[in-house]
Specification:
With 157 residues, the protein is mainly alpha-helical. Helices cover 59% and strands 6% of the residues. The protein contains 5 helices and 4 strands; from the N terminus they run ααβαβαββα. The strands form 2 sheets. It has a two-stranded antiparallel ribbon. A two-stranded antiparallel ribbon has the order 3-4. Strand 3 and strand 4 form a beta hairpin. The radius of gyration is 32 Å and the shape is elongated.
């Protein structure tokens, strides 16, 4: 039993599935960092400016009654905080990443449907009885050896 599982794992790893998965995870992590930077460095500052010069990283509620002017100051004091500004930034990250993944999957599925819709080119072919070349099923003469072929049954009727 363990040798069978080991054999299946070896086939899985050799086929490239594990490598494809690792590459996907690495690219996904890098993409997540880029989106986080876009949100934190490019999107949130103008939104904060439009909302009255609000810095979203400093939006928090301190859960005790002691005052502090910044989130860093509250954390340094060891206070419990409700960081809704950071949550909004993370939520925006998630929405952007999930939208991009949605568009990518939609595009991939569209390409797959096009590939599945293509008819098999050999489906409309037959073999010449004289020279054994592939010719269209509707042909009445072989284009290679010019042998006269029997007309398909549908055309004889």
């Amino acid at each position: 039993m363990p040798s069978r599982i080991l054999k299946e794992f070896k086939e899985f790893a050799i086929k490239g599935n594990m490598i494809d998965l690792a590459i996907g995870v690495i690219i996904g992590g890098a993409f997540g960092k880029v989106v986080t930077s876009i949100v934190n460095d490019l999107v949130m500052p103008p939104v904060g400016l439009l909302l009255g010069k609000v810095n979203f990283t400093d939006l928090y509620i301190r859960l005790d009654d002691k005052p502090s002017s910044t989130l860093a100051e509250a954390k340094a004091a060891g206070a419990a905080t409700f960081n809704y500004g950071l949550f909004l930034s993370t939520l925006l990250d998630f929405l952007i990443v999930s939208f991009v993944i949605f568009i990518a999957v939609k595009q991939i599925n569209r390409f797959r449907r096009k590939e599945e819709a293509k008819p098999d080119p050999k489906e409309n072919m037959k073999e010449c009885p004289e020279c054994l070349s592939e010719i269209p099923k509707k042909a009445s003469r072989c284009k290679y050896c010019t042998a006269v072929l029997e007309a398909p049954a549908a055309e004889r009727a």
